[in-house]
Write a structure and sequence with these properties.
Shape: extended
Bound molecules: copper (II) ion
CATH superfamily of the largest domain: Cupredoxins -  blue copper proteins
Order of helices and strands: HEEEEEEEEEEE
Number of strands: 11
Low-confidence stretches: 27-49
Distance between the termini: 80 Å
Length: 169
Amino acid sequence: MNQNLHVPLSIITLVALFIVSALFFSQFSSVSQRLDALEKVAREGSAFTFGGLPADWTNPEAPAQSLPLEEKDVPNGAIKLQVTAQGFSPNTFTVKAGEKVTLAAKSADQWVHTFVFDDPKLTDVSLGLASGETRGITFFAPKKKGEYKFFCNVPGHRGRGEEGVMIVK
Ligand SMILES: [Cu+2]
């Protein structure tokens, strides 16, 4: 290797070091942002998506169930349902077409229950509830008026009456 190449090589080394450290620090700041987001989740009870990223459960654009909620954490104006082996209570509720809906459901007996809709367009609107647990979800009501059936999809539960209707008008 001749002498003339040494200068460019050391410049290349310096540039490479700069890039590596820039990448390192950008990584560092995104980790700290991520920790901030996780803290926010811990404080506000947001849900995690399957990708592991925190999701805001009150965002109707991307319905995702909350972590378990205390009664005081259920927003004012939320539609509240309870589900037991006897069914949903209430088993019907009414919303306006296209409006933002916040729903909170509680498993009020010793069983695990779920809340899901029949309509495939509402697949994302689903809750899984351990015994005694309340969770919430926010979504846009369908723009199409009509009756949308919901139920608990734990095997055997719908058959014993765990179903209801969301009326969109
Ligand atoms: Cu059930």
